[in-house]
Specification:
This protein has 174 residues and is mainly α. It contains seven helices and no strands. Keywords: Sigma factor, Transcription, Transcription regulation.
Length: 174
């Protein structure tokens, strides 16, 4: 990992934090989320330092990182809202504890991120099989591939799920 000169990041932060925060606050309509994402943007800058050719390039770089973080933020919110909606339809006695909720939401985010890394057809096949319970032949017709390809897609998706499970087990054990 490349070591970043602290003064370079400090100068970038001092020069652009307020601008970035205001940009995010307008985009998110929430000061707390804007502050969090501005902070996360500068953390990413620390992890992937750049050479800049002036203020325009600096702001463009920061805005690009922030845009990606906003998209992730909105996806996470949408996923959480869908889960909370599904949870609200269950009897109160069947609701998980706050700790279980946090684990479930984090696992949903990890699965969503895993699905985003897969090719579109693989992801579609997995969702149709796992969430909608469709048979392979129907999935093939839906996404325009043979039943044999559906089997390959599902094997690929399940391999990614197994890798994700191993990663999560490693995080939970340590």
């Amino acid at each position: 990992m490349m070591v970043v000169e602290p003064s370079l990041v400090q100068n970038l932060y001092t020069s652009h934090h307020r601008w970035l925060y205001e940009l995010l606050r307008r985009r998110l309509s929430n000061a707390f989320d804007a502050a969090d994402l501005a902070h996360d943007t500068f953390i990413r800058v620390l992890k992937r330092p750049q050479e800049f050719q002036g203020e325009v390039h600096e702001r463009s770089y920061l805005a690009t990182i922030a845009r990606g973080l906003c998209i992730d933020h909105w996806r996470r919110r949408q996923l959480e809202q869908a889960w909370l909606q599904a949870l609200s339809e269950r009897p109160q006695a069947m609701h998980p504890s706050p700790e279980q909720r946090a684990i479930i939401v984090e696992t949903l985010h990890e699965v969503d991120a895993m699905l985003q890394r897969l090719p579109q057809r693989v992801s579609d096949a997995f969702i149709l099989a796992q969430l909608h319970g469709m048979p392979y032949k129907a999935i093939g017709l839906e996404i325009g591939v043979s039943e044999r390809m559906v089997k390959k897609y599902l094997a690929q998706a399940l391999m990614h799920c197994a890798m994700l499970e191993a990663e999560l087990d490693g995080l939970l054990i340590e």
